[in-house]
Amino acid sequence: MNTIAFYENSIDGIYVGSDAGVYYRDASMDDWTMFSNGLPVDASVNEIEIYHNPDNPSVDVIRAGTYGRGLWSSPVWHGQPVADFSSEETTVPVGCEVDFYDLSEGVPTSWSWTFEGATPATSSDKNPAGIVYLSQGTFDVTLTVSNDEGTNTKTLSGYMTVSETAVPAVYFVASDSITCSGTEIYFTDMSSNCPTGWSWEFDPSDVTFINGTNAASQNPVVEFTGTGSFTVTLTVTNAAGTSSLEKTNSLNIGVFRSHFLMTLNRATWNPNRGSSKTPTSISPGMWLPWPEIAPEQPPYMDFYDYIVPLARATGSLLPLLNMSDFSIVMLSFKHAYAKRHTAVTDSLGANIKQLRANLDKDICRW
Questions:
Q1: Considering the entire predicted model, what is its pTM?
Q2: 9 near 50, Cβ under 8 Å?
Q3: Cβ distance 81 to 111 under 8 Å?
Q4: How far is CA 110 from CA 148, 247, 316, 352, in A?
Q5: What would the pLDDT profile of 105-128 be if each residue is shown by its tens digit?
Q6: Edge-to-edge, what's the strand order for the sheet holding 45-51?
Q7: For residue 228, which of 181, 293, 272 has the smallest C-alpha distance?
Q8: Can you say how many angstroms the Cα of residue 30 is from the centroid of all Cα atoms in its chain?
Q9: Confidence of residue 129 (pLDDT cuts 50, 70, 90)
Q10: pLDDT band at residue 223 under the 50/70/90 scheme
């Protein structure tokens, strides 16, 4: 394979250029197919570019650059169309707008939709949006697709159900569930059945809405000023009524901030001998308690004289953390590392111990 290009007007279609020509495959196909329409079949194709028109895919072309054979151009691959589609929702309240999506095979170039009981009742868009159902009932949806290879139609009887009692199905997610106090958390509403109103509640209530959002925003951004476990409740409204979802103690705020941060000054750090800020030197096989290390003086090891017997480690010890007030604890670390000598075996590890009732117990090692 010499080159690859993604075709946006298909269902995950990919063109591949090789020493044996051009091949095509999309999500509807079980295997690659050779595509030689107007393209060389015995030349090394080194580059592929696709011109696609989102509004008129019938004019889409593929261009292939070859080694010693020039530049070639051809209409894109088309197969026998097979109509298929989906929608954003299939059960909605009266007055709800619904978006429809073409999933047809064969790379169609034209579409004809019919929406029984909806406004508008027809569309020639590939993915029609804002289709409104103004009365309750069950309604058919029909899609006819065409290209140079033929035409195909699909009708789904009773595909859409419109009900005056279709209250919202409430669901939401948060960008984080365990974090420090003062951290921004983004909430995303994922409710269905055409919600039109939102009300967010937090218990305890010591939170601040930021970035121009508030308790009535669909997707608020919240800063937690308190600590502990928080319960989040979302109440959603549509034309049919109201529904709520409560996630009890779903957020744990106030985990310890990393006061063990070590930073390296890019301008002054010397990878051979450490930092111009006189970093703390750790002797081979030595573990140095953290209070003896300043953040601006990161520990380093003298690799020139670093000869350590097998099974001996060098590192730093972090202070004890009291996690007794937390039901869920998450510990993580980030590191930067580069091996100095390729012939010498070394590794970087972390060891977490649990101290309880004079019990020194290894929880896990990396």
A1: 0.61
A2: no
A3: no
A4: 10, 46, 67, 61
A5: 999 999 999 999 999 999 999 999
A6: 45-51, 61-66, 71-75
A7: 181
A8: 27
A9: very high
A10: very high
